UniProtKB/TrEMBL annotation:
It comes from Dyella mobilis. Pfam families: Sulfotransfer_3. This is Sulfotransferase. InterPro entries: P-loop_NTPase. SUPFAM superfamilies: P-loop containing nucleoside triphosphate hydrolases.
């Protein structure tokens, strides 16, 4: 593939859809919401492992070609962009493979204070009171506490992504990782995009922060979570009060490890 591939990953409800909507304004770029490539990548890795007795016929070089071929074929002639951003929360667990397969690729991880991520999901639950969400396996029961515990667990939507982010942040491939804070993206979108362009080595582009478009309504309806990928037309910071009980909000207040310089031994770029 002659095109350049970069990756968007990080925490849920942290601006990845907004970032993709902005990036795709550039006619040289292709970007979108979380897609199937992360799952396809993992499935192919598993099927080529030695749990499959036929794996004896597959060399590591063949594995690399097959995995690289996933991107070649998925983003085939239907996508004519020169630069592709593939979005999936699992990419922060794949930095060693990405480094080998695509040495020039970078991973942009969107992050946000965890208490506000939990708050954002809870707002969706309350907004869609008559539509149980796939986030909770369509279970209409539980309380705000059980929902928060489920989200934050190691296999929950937030907990998995959080652990994967820390794996990348503290791993030896951290030089190809950039963290983009949600507040930076909505308060200073121009400066944030400029930092991203510099990180990936691309010439800057004049984005329109007053007319941002992205439509994932059909997908969101299928997941029982209308509004999951909605973005405002104008990029702006909108302060609000949390809907979480105060003790639950405080539980996650110290989880933003990327904000303390002493917690960043590898010098990961944080915007």
């Amino acid at each position: 593939m002659s095109r350049t591939i970069h990756f968007i990953s990080g925490l849920p409800r942290s601006g990845s859809t907004l970032l993709a909507a902005l990036l795709k304004q550039n006619p040289r770029f292709h970007a979108g919401m979380s897609g199937p490539m992360g799952g396809l990548f993992s499935t192919m890795l598993a099927e080529m492992s030695h749990r499959n007795e036929m794996a004896v016929f597959i060399s590591d070089e063949q594995r690399k070609r097959l995995l690289h071929g996933l991107f070649d074929n998925y983003y085939g002639p239907e996508t004519d962009a020169e630069v592709i951003f593939d979005t999936n929360r699992s990419w922060t667990t794949r930095l060693p493979a990405i480094k080998t397969l695509m040495p020039n690729s970078k991973v942009i991880a969107c992050v946000r204070d965890v208490q506000w991520i939990i708050d954002s999901v809870e707002r969706l639950v309350r907004k869609n009171a008559f539509s149980p969400s796939s986030i909770f396996n369509y279970n209409p029961g539980g309380t705000v506490y059980t929902r928060a515990n489920g989200l934050a667990g190691s296999d929950g939507m937030v907990g998995y992504a959080y652990d994967a982010l820390k794996e990348a942040f503290y791993g030896p491939e951290a030089d190809r990782l950039m963290l983009v804070q949600y507040d930076s993206l909505v308060k200073e979108p121009g400066l944030t995009l400029a930092a991203i362009y510099a990180f990936i080595g691309e010439p800057t582009f004049k984005h329109d922060f007053d007319n941002v478009e992205y439509d994932a309504r059909e997908f969101d309806l299928r997941t029982g979570t209308p509004g999951l990928h909605d973005i405002k037309r104008r990029v702006a910071h909108e302060p609000r009060e949390s809907v979480l009980p105060p003790d639950l909000f405080r539980r996650f207040e110290n989880d933003s490890f990327w904000k303390q310089a002493e917690n960043n031994p590898r010098g990961v770029r944080v915007v």
